[in-house]
Amino acid sequence: MTLRFETTLSQLNTRIGPLDKNAMAEAQRRWDSIAHPLNSLGMLERDIIRIAGITGDPNVDLSKKAVVAMCADNGVVAEGVTQTGQEVTAIVTENMSKGDTSVCCMARVAGAEVIPVDIGVARPVTGENIRQCCIRRGTANMTKGPAMSREEAAKAVMTGILLVEELKQVGFRLLATGEMGIGNTTTSSAIVSVLLGKDPAEVTGRGAGLTSEGLERKIHAIRTAIAVNQPDSADPLDVLHKVGGLDIAGLAGVFLGGAIHRVPVLVDGFISSAAALVAAAICPAAKDYMLASHASNEPAGRMVLETLGLTPFLHAGMCLGEGTGAVAVMPLLDMAAAVYREMCTFAATDIEAYEHLT
């Protein structure tokens, strides 16, 4: 698998082309023809145009949407970096299968399907809606050595890429990234610390809720993991397997798969943005196929999005994860697409068209 993935890596830049400028120009012309002040829907117009460029089709259709929630456990929880125990990952993963979590409630309103993926939960999980793609039953404690092998990290990334291919084949047109994994803000902070060259204290927050003492333990665990493993910031797969998580690796694959198969993918919060950062480190061209949803309340949430060149729709102080921020943006995109498709044009009314002014 590692050899196959390394070979795929070398081909990504040729497989991921630029956005379709013709489709984007046609989308811009459509917006300009609609009977409204030019660019008055701001970011909504911008992202509909971008989606046209991603898909290569100015006839934007977001009718079939899904949240891909990668679920995995992290051995670093042994260092006391979380408020809850590791068993919560399996419970919430199974609840996702039953439609009984926050993102499931929100997805029903947004008209999106939730697809939980067991890519590394510590115990076997059951549920007819769970994709069984487990690479290993949780990662090792990264303060003692690598979280996983390079081969396991590569396999997790490939899992995400292949899943996007499958979802596109059955008609999904917009994907959101979600996750479930106790301890994954610790692994995300470790990845961001290495890839951005920041001290762990600058990029580490309280996650799902830590005391000041707990936060210090978390920062210490990240510093220890980096010192023990010496991840190479120039080699994103090295960073992933040494101080990352299977959920993050799987999501990095989803972002890469979106770019390969021309499916727009929404970045959720901090953990999802850490995965997006990994994907962009693997293949910079993948950034063009990502859409930001919200700015996470975690300390490095905005920092990572700025690095990726992405501007979020929402600044709502959210840090729940699961894909909730990304799903919250889906109705906004649906409304924008409705105006884009259905609004009457200047030509069809007795209104003089607006002009772009310099």
UniProtKB/TrEMBL annotation:
Functional note: Catalyzes the synthesis of alpha-ribazole-5'-phosphate from nicotinate mononucleotide (NAMN) and 5,6-dimethylbenzimidazole (DMB).
Keyword Transferase: yes
Catalysed reactions listed for this entry: 5,6-dimethylbenzimidazole + nicotinate beta-D-ribonucleotide = alpha-ribazole 5'-phosphate + nicotinate + H(+)
Family stated for the protein in its record: Belongs to the CobT family.
EC number: 2.4.2.21
Pfam family, one: DBI_PRT
Protein name as it appears in the record: Nicotinate-nucleotide--dimethylbenzimidazole phosphoribosyltransferase
Any GO BP: cobalamin biosynthetic process
GO molecular function: nicotinate-nucleotide-dimethylbenzimidazole phosphoribosyltransferase activity
HAMAP family given in the database record: CobT (MF_00230)
InterPro entries: Nict_dMeBzImd_PRibTrfase, Nict_dMeBzImd_PRibTrfase_bact, Nict_dMeBzImd_PRibTrfase_N, Nict_dMeBzImd_PRibTrfase_sf
SUPFAM superfamilies listed in its UniProt record: Nicotinate mononucleotide:5,6-dimethylbenzimidazole phosphoribosyltransferase (CobT)
